[in-house]
Amino acid sequence: MTNQSPIEMNKNRIQIFDTTLRDGEQSPGAAVDSGRKIVIARQLAKLGIDVIEPGFPISSPGDFAAVQQISRELQNVEIAGFARCMRPDIDAAVRATEDAARRRLHLFISSSDIHLDFQMRKSRDQVIQMARDMISYGKQFVDEIEFSAMDSTRTGHEFLITMVEAAIEAGATIINMPDTTGYAMPHEIEELFRTVRREARGADKVRFSAHCHNDLGMAVANSIAAIRGGATQVEVTVNGIGERAGNCSLEELVMAIETRKEALQAETGIVQAEIFNTSRLVSRTMRFPIAFNKPIVGRNAFQHESGIHQDGLLKNRNTFEIMDPEAMGIPRSMIILGKSSGRHAIKHRLSEYGIQVSDDQMQGIYERFIEIADVNKIVTDSELVRITGEATETQPDPFVLVDLQVVSGTQRSRVASVTVRDSVGEERSYSAVGEGPLESVIRCIQQAIPNAGEFEDLELHSLSTGEGAYGEAVVTTVYEDQRYRGTAIHKDIVLAAAQAYVAACNQAIMSNSRKAESGTTAAGQAGQAEAPVQSAG
Predict the structure, then answer these.
(1) Are 196 and 166 contacting, i.e. CB atoms less than 8 angstroms apart?
(2) Which residues belong to any copy of the Pyruvate carboxyltransferase domain (predicted)?
């Protein structure tokens, strides 16, 4: 007996086919060696991906080895071996995936006239025969064959239907109709899928897949349109990476389906809690940055500076957010303090550090806050705590970076020294060496702050242009399996990174101190509650 409602039972299960390690790797500027591919593939499996396309086996020995290793290790995920409609490609894909528990061949050939005339220089009849022959050849080795008619959206419906029928007759079990150049509009994609599924002989016996590029910014919208047209598989990449403007973004598609599942009558098997970790891993590993305003995983996606928005969020998150970032593994940092922020948001941020201020003190803090926000646009947490300390004549932060010096050169080690003041006012100096100036500075700070936490990630951003440009540093640390983020702005980017690291360490220390205090209080309250029961006995 199931507890599902009739609506839930009628939802289409959309298979997520990930091509981050094949099409995504083709992004200009993105690169990942074969050793790193397995790390990403493991995370994709943890994310709940249905099918992984780990590479193009014929393209290089490294790609072949990566596909082979992933096929051997990840036995709970279907592996796709990518190949042109050519025997050497198919042979390489078959060998590379032979140890997979579940596998498919993914064969492709062009279908549009512009590709046939200028790229392949072959007739329509020749291309159809090649597709027939190679699907039949591949069928000797695997049961599951996905066939892609490349540039489907610029292929006339009549010829595309003829090609799809030939592929199905030869043994294809999945038909992929890619928008290879990102040319189509959503209504055209939906009509294409409906038409081919309705008119192609044998279409009712196969599954249909969508593979949309983002040249006009419509990859996700087109993929959703394909689902509405009957596609039950969508091909995606993490962070939407891929050739030119990229592919359909995995996280955007999945969360669109999740957020609007009643309207789409669709669902996926993706583990939402792993979305952010996967996004960050791919970005770092492929050295491919994520745009600030990238939906779902961009740093601004769940951050709000407007005072009106901040006030609404503090009262009820649903006023201005349609998704829960923490459900996707995204740290809760929704409020960015800037010149549009109000006193409510500033007080709330200070309370997160355990800092309480009077109304008179708040007025002074707010006035200084606005002065800094007018210049820098954003007021970092460390700056806010410093402003508060000046207004209240205290040092709220456990540690303050007092001085920093770095010596760099082409013929010597980078040497750094820092002076740090603790909460009781005692100053100590530390020195260290490293391969780079930042490494030497971080080693100094780790000596100064015993519970510094692991230095996990650093982002550097320019906030202006010219020689006097300000740099913003964002540092993420890990302490007792929790992540903490500190930010700082300065013309000296090494100093900004050092200040951001100290800010992140302070967050970790203050957060754990508050947890310990609340735990002690809770224990005391529990003891008081139990006492009457004991005495009554």
Answers:
(1) no
(2) 14-276
